Amino acid sequence: MAAATCACRPWGSLLGLLGLVSAAAAVWDLTSLRCNFGSFCECDFRPDFQGLECDLAQHLAGQHLARALVVKALKAFVQDPAPTKPLVLSLHGWTGTGKSFVSSLLAHYLFRGGLRSPHVHHFSPLIHFPHPSHMERYKKDLKSWVQGNLTACSRSLFLFDEMDKLAPGLIEVLRPFLGSSWVVYGTNYRKAIFIFISNTGGEQINQVVLEAWRSRRDREEIRLQELEPVISQAVLDNPHHGFWHSGIMEEHLLDTLVPFLPLQRHHVRHCVLNELAQLGLEPRDEVVQAVLDSTTFFPEEEQLFSSNGCKTVASRIAFFL
């Protein structure tokens, strides 16, 4: 989509947006807590698909599959006046490939308050569930938190980051909320959205993309059918993943596994140019080249994929300006 036809909602630099993810994860949202016990706050669910598709097209480098899958699933879900179950997405891929960025975009374009909306709930294992010995308390709290906030607003978004660092056993309390029952614990929950993010499956995705490159297949020819089985198996085989023995994979409660492909040199260049534009700076060849030269690529022989994707682009730009 050409930039001239887009109606992207302004927000400042991509670095600033991703910083909001960390800020949202740092504390339990007190506004949401108050919504559990009062009717003063209204849902601020205001989906803007044109803006979402515009930003995905402009800023999400190298992810044709993720972009198509997320938009298709989200549109079908939101446009259904009576969904039979919540939308459950699981984002997988190498670090820095855009998983957290996409989840931020969804919050930004679905809710008026974006990540600061009282109906967007972001969980980080190291912040919210740091002690495995407290797992029973965490289970009780998480169940109450989800139930209470869905009572306040059925159009709620729950983001679970770093699932491969989440102690197994916790997420199983979400099973009743993810299936196709009409009511759980007296709460209508069918319009909720759950997004789970992890690096698990990243190595398997990278291998599929590497083999495609070696076979001279175009990157855009890679389809979900090639990646879904290897991602699923990687999750099921990982005892450190939050889905381990939770029943969520086994009972097919996920609507879509969303693969994020490893980023190549031209994708990193795209990220550098995007960040410079977001900062209001003109593209400078020496800065772009310096960032690329300081980026590590793998495998050792091909030097094909960025080790950190676009994750460190913003900080590297600041260093070379």
UniProtKB/TrEMBL annotation:
ATP binds at G93, W94, T95, G96, T97, G98, K99, S100. The keyword ATP-binding applies. Keywords: ATP-binding, Endoplasmic reticulum, Glycoprotein, Nucleotide-binding, Signal. One of its GO terms (molecular function) is identical protein binding. Residues 266-320 form the Torsin-1A C-terminal domain. The keyword Nucleotide-binding applies. Residues 1-26 form the signal peptide. It is found in: Endoplasmic reticulum lumen. InterPro entries: ClpA/B, P-loop_NTPase, TOR1A_C, Torsin, Torsin_1/2. It comes from the Eukaryota. It holds the Pfam family Torsin. GO terms for cellular component: endoplasmic reticulum lumen; nuclear envelope. Its main location: endoplasmic reticulum. Belongs to the ClpA/ClpB family. Torsin subfamily. This is Torsin. It comes from Camelus bactrianus.
